[in-house]
Design goal:
Blueprint lengths: L5 H10 L6 H24 L28 H5 L5 E2 L2 E2 L9
Antiparallel strand pairs: 1-2
Helix pairs in contact: 1-2
Length: about 100
């Protein structure tokens, strides 16, 4: 017996305001049924001697330590700018505002 029915998929599609043809609904019901069956199979395989995991290998943080370092001075930052004014980058106006 199918765990996901055509009518359930049709109802969910209407709730989500997704227009689907009858062929698309049937295909989606079939695909969702395969997913549910796969999850059920995995649930049956899980036993007390197999620990629950979200990843097959341990994960670790690969980010470097956040160490403060000297930054550019205002003059150094503006040295390569095509235009600067009052210690700031100057760019062409893109809006009709002052």
């Amino acid at each position: 017996m199918s765990a996901i029915t055509f009518e359930q998929v049709k109802h969910l599609a209407s709730l989500a305001l997704i227009e689907m043809t009858d062929e698309e609904l049937a295909a989606m019901a079939s695909e969702l049924d395969i997913i549910v069956a796969s999850v059920e199979t995995m649930s049956q395989k899980a036993t007390a001697d197999i620990p629950a995991t979200s990843h097959p290998i341990p994960l670790e943080n690969v980010f470097r330590e956040d160490v403060p370092v000297p930054t550019l001075t205002q003059e150094e930052a503006l040295s390569g700018a095509p235009d600067a004014q009052d210690g700031k980058f100057r760019v062409p106006a893109i809006l009709d505002e002052d």
